[in-house]
Amino acid sequence: MFDLSKNYFELFGLPVDFILDGEALAERYRELQRVVHPDRYANASDQEQRLSLQQATRINEAFETLKNPVSRAQYLLSLHGIDMQAEKETTRDTAFLMEQLELREALEKARNTDDPQAVLDELMDRISAMIRKQVAQMAIHFEDPNPVNLQAARESVRKMQFLNKLLSEAESLEAEFEDML
Amino acid sequence: MALLQIAEPGQAAAPHEHKLAAGIDLGTTNSLVAAVRSGQAEALPDAQGRHLLPSVVRYTPDGVIVGYEAREAAASDPLNTIASAKRLIGRPVSDIKSLGSSLPYEFVDQDSSVPRLRTVAGDVSPMEVSAEILKVLAKRAEDTLGGELSGVVITVPAYFDDAQRQATKDAARLAGLNVFRLLNEPTAAAVAYGLDRGADGVHAIFDLGGGTFDISILRLNKGVFEVMATGGDSALGGDDFDQAIAEWIMEQAGISDDADHQVLRQLMQDARAAKEALSSASSTELDIAIPGDGRWQGRIDRETFYRLADPLIRKTISACRRALRDAGVEAADIKEVVMVGGSTRMPRVREKVGEFFQREPLVDIDPDKVVAIGAAIQADVLAGNKPDDEILLLDVTPLSLGLETMGGLVEKVIPRNTTIPVARAQEFTTFKDGQTAMAIHVVQGEREMVEHCRSLARFELRGIPPMVAGAARIRVTFSVDADGLLNVEAEELSQGVKAQITVKPSYGLSDEEITGMLQASFEHAEEDMEERKLAEARVEGMRVVEALQAALASDGDRLLSDDERGSIDAALAELAAAIDADDAEAIERQAKHVEEVCEFYVERRMNAGIQEAMAGHNINEFE
Questions:
Q1: Model pTM score
Q2: Model ipTM over 0.90
Q3: Residue A42 contacts B, CB cutoff 8 Å
Q4: How close A149 comes to chain B (CA, Å)?
């Protein structure tokens, strides 16, 4: 039965794990939306329309959560009883924080260099590599979800939040450069 | 009224009835209606064989004229002839004033923020003007198809904000239409093309109409259209190219911009003619009326036109670039580029778009008709005429939705390009000790400061228990439905005090205003209203009966025990009896009763559907 107590992984018939088959997720998502989407109930009773809206909304939310590695990790942590105060938590890894500071400065200076796009490309490559590294580590932590590993995964989520924010800043800078072309 | 038939358990209900449905492209310059007939979606012509209906409405003391005839009067009777109502719909007066001299109408000065235009037939809102166009198209469809429409799909630019969508829906209500769905224009175009070709992959839809520009990136996968990103400019279109040419002529001919309405209108038409001529010729002659009965002769060549047009085209290309980035794809990943909208007829636009995407854009469906055709296909699906159809559209929010926080900053709750329907909650807290009320200001847009975003609604949550600053927990939930319309709810979590608002833009119409306009348009007494109410209750009651009969016929035996089936049939019979009697309230009561009795069945059906979809998959296959 489809019930609201099912977790997002069960909803898509996928194993509860950080490593996930993105193709299968997308395919299940489409199959479920085919059944519950409000377009299927345009002629139905108000009650069915409400139910369909509610379920389509939940399936969208589940898909969004599982698709993105950071939200997936956070969701997995919550299934293991760790509710992160995502926005408020921050890492205490000083080496990591120093590196962030340095990257941010480089980003700010990119604008005034001879070839801002090239500088930006290099920075974005670096950030992306760091993100890939964190994702790989998360996968290892969740492989054996004991308390120590779960805390390590939590630390990875905190770092990922920094990195994602930095990447989106780099992207908006890139957008700015492109619009000037 | 004839007795309703109820099929015996286990037997099929009446053979599936084809419901009449239409797709309407409510355009800035021209509008169209299309429908699926004998399996083919096609635009429906008027009695003279013309498919387009100019989106021009002329108010005269003797009545309302819509279309070609109204357009011809645009220059001679500019104040009573409203063109481009789509540029005004759902916008506050302040916005419209900034649209400038291209709108030679007389706006009524008033307190209300809904703009009203003064005409000889009284003051009208842009919603009412659009409703006149919708009425003509709906009538054309009903005359052609030979019956009443069960519902319509109306297209809107993907980039329309919540206020513009809501206003479009209001216009349809004023026209007495049942709106199945508001559909984004580029998505409609994709449906029209996608079905033709069955081409899976990522596509770009470039839609440059008379007054709006949209770019959508979408993925087509086995009949599912997933919008990945959308962007554009709700105030950029072919009219701006005309305006640029007109301004150039004014400069050359020494016409000042405070010249009278008639001269300016005529000039806009001449500018448009020049633009169209330059599609095939390398230069064209100009012969322009100037104030004081004189004329100015000159010529404009293609290079001059390019100089005027290229900055506008560049804006569209920037939006394409942003949309690609939002979708996370490169120009090279795009399988096909579909051109939509009359303004994509300009060879310069095709050339520049082709350059950017590095491929020849598709133009084989008439760019004027493609949106209406897609809307007609979707209307047919939503009417339930294709129960086994494979198409499903998954659309997104075009603009971020958020709340004002301290210091006039915007906190985004739902980012742009989030798949709808969607619901997101965010918690906020109080700023002062003992604060008992909180003002919720809902805004839409990408900028960080409230003043740069569009204000959608304001409401207050009262009755927050007094606590120290920062201790209260207020959860604000945003939900966007499948039409892209927003609902906002605020709740204080410790005591459960709630406040809720369906976002009606501050410059839209209230329900009372709409009811008032509808009543005025029926211009009569109470018994007519009673009659209408009964008729509406019957239609609604029949809808419940039909939906349920169809459901029972398809899976009633499988999903229901005899007892359960018995109680549903009994409730259904009571509703049928009520529909046959003359009491609107009794019909509503019985319809509600049926829904209550069927609640478990509705859920069971949906679950069965989900289980079926998931059948054959199990966790092991991924391990």
A1: 0.79
A2: no
A3: yes
A4: 22
